[in-house]
Write a structure and sequence with these properties.
It contains 3 helices and 18 strands. The chain is an alpha+beta fold. The N and C termini lie far apart (96 Å).
Length: 238
């Protein structure tokens, strides 16, 4: 009898332990996860009732909803086992051919551009600049994430642009400097594209291109090479 009681107690403890471990695993995956797809911020909310909500900034107006399940530490959504995300306690990783996803609990830092300098001088714009972030229709994207490689050289009112992504090579244009901004217009009517370059309070610049239907702003930092030259010019000769 004592052996039977001991066996039952051991079995009960084992079952309780297994249930608690399973509950901990299930609870640990619940909540909000953050990732990106093609540079677009994604947010995945796994609810305790095994339903989910997923949003992709700029790609959908309403959240995508469905069901999820965790099998052998692999997350499947809507019963689709062709694309699973491996759960290691701290991240969700996986995808399919041509699409790799990586979700973490860490909410990405939100880029907030500085305010324009109202009384900027023409010489403040001089130098080489590289795009770090892009705002398209109000959605902020990382230039690195989407492969944006726009480089701009400003010399007086002459602006030269280079970008493999945008198929631009030494594309040069003349801008007008007025009211602390560099402005230019290309084309006529609905096909006209207006460009504006503004100096921002943190020392960066914002290049905005817009037509009758859409607009895009490139937030640009001065390139390392340009900064090195400026520092060398500022240092007194030995």
């Amino acid at each position: 009898m004592k052996k039977m009681t001991a066996f039952l107690m051991t079995l009960l403890m084992t079952v309780l332990l297994a249930v608690s471990v399973l509950a901990a695993e299930t609870a640990s995956i619940n909540g909000t996860w953050y990732g990106e797809m093609f540079g677009l911020p994604m947010e995945l909310n796994l609810k305790e009732d095994n339903t989910y909500e997923m949003t992709i900034a700029g790609a959908m107006e309403d959240a995508e909803t469905g069901t999820w399940e965790l099998k052998d530490n692999v997350l499947y959504m809507d019963g689709d086992e062709s694309m699973g995300l491996t759960f290691d306690g701290e991240s969700l990783k996986g995808g399919s051919e041509g699409l790799e996803l990586n979700f973490t609990r860490e909410e990405p830092e939100t880029f907030t551009p500085a305010n324009p300098v109202k009384d900027a001088k023409l010489e403040d714009f001089a130098g080489d600049w590289e795009a770090d972030n892009i705002s398209y229709q109000g959605i902020i994207l990382s230039g690195e994430a989407i492969g944006m490689d726009l480089k701009v050289t400003i010399d007086g009112t002459t602006v030269k642009m280079n970008s493999v992504f945008m198929e631009m090579e030494d594309e040069e244009g003349e801008y007008e400097f007025k009211d602390g901004k560099l402005t230019a217009s290309d084309g006529e009517g609905e096909e006209a594209i207006e460009s504006t370059i503004e100096l921002l309070e943190d020392g960066t610049i914002a290049l905005t291109m817009k037509d009758s239907e859409q607009n895009m702003t490139f937030y640009m930092n001065k390139s390392f090479a340009s900064e090195t030259v400026e520092k060398a010019e500022e240092e007194p000769a030995a």
